[in-house]
Amino acid sequence: MKPGRYGIYGGRYVPETLMSALIELEETYERVREDPEFSSRLSWYLREYAGRETPLTYCANLSRDLGCRVYLKREDLLHGGAHKLNNTLGQALMAKFMGKRRLIAETGAGQHGVATAIAGAALGLPVEVYMGEVDTRRQALNVFRMELLGARVVPVVSGTRTLKDAINAAMRDWVANLGDTHYLLGSCVGPHPFPRIVRDFQSVIGEETRRQILEREGRLPDTVVACVGGGSNAIGIFYPFVNDDVALVGVEAGGEGLDSGRHGASLSAGSVGVFQGALSYLLQDGDGQALETHSVAAGLDHPSVGPEHAMLKDSGRVRYEAVTDAEALHAFRRLSRTEGIIPALESAHAVAYALRAADDLDKDGILVVNLSGRGDKDVADVANLHGGVA
Fold it and tell me: Which of 183, 192, 284, 219 minimizes the C-alpha distance to 69?
């Protein structure tokens, strides 16, 4: 396989002005991944600052109800409340090694923006975060958190005013400021080498899960489930299991149903196309323009997906399913009441699928769900949807 390619997917479909920055990033990553000083510093930040390793929690009540053994990988307990910090600490440290003096980022649900703001504050780098104007309203708490952490949040008012428009705005900023700025991309999308860098920094989730379940159960799980928007938490937990006899299931945003046209399920209902610098599955019209997407979870509201997921879908190694807004909201309430854990709406999609998948497992079957983030940010939205208490 060619570097930067996942089967036919991936690559660098970018203007010539970005090529030098991507080559610099690729060369820096190849250097730092073999550098003991970089590894030592990143390990310190992940352990002493971010709070790794995160627990693998056995859910006694849900296991009893579903008739199999259910575990949650608790990325919601990472500092900042989501898996995003694994990647932002890694990339911010890389930026320091490259001599960059400024970080820019894009965010949908706000968790990546918060994680970038945290990493910037910890490493002394100023941060600007582009965010769709629609998302700034529905994720107002995370906007305040970013500003509290010292970041400048830039509302994007073009297009649908959501995540894809924020990514376009961040790309434009990067092209104009390549000399001193690192674009800290938040998911395993975009041109090479971003998908590989993000996957590698997020693989700590799967490496820990693999070791923890072997210690607890003496064997690997039957099924691992994770939600997929761009796909960073999913590729992070899947990657260390890819060569094992473990079923891997990615859960996309089915929104109001795949037939409604109002969803974010690019793997389940999209086709192959180029989007934001890479070849992957894309929700597009007949002219190859990205379609508007919809999800109750802002972090899954994206028209494309990381190229490695596209390859894993075609090969059949990972199965991708879609869960509707209604199913995700049901899972949001059920996990909260059954286990006392409020999941992010993104993670609630994975929980919703797990409720279905449990029917295929017996009492000794082991199901692991990656709880990619906590639901504090979504509580007000869910309350509004239900006119009060969910």
Answer: 219
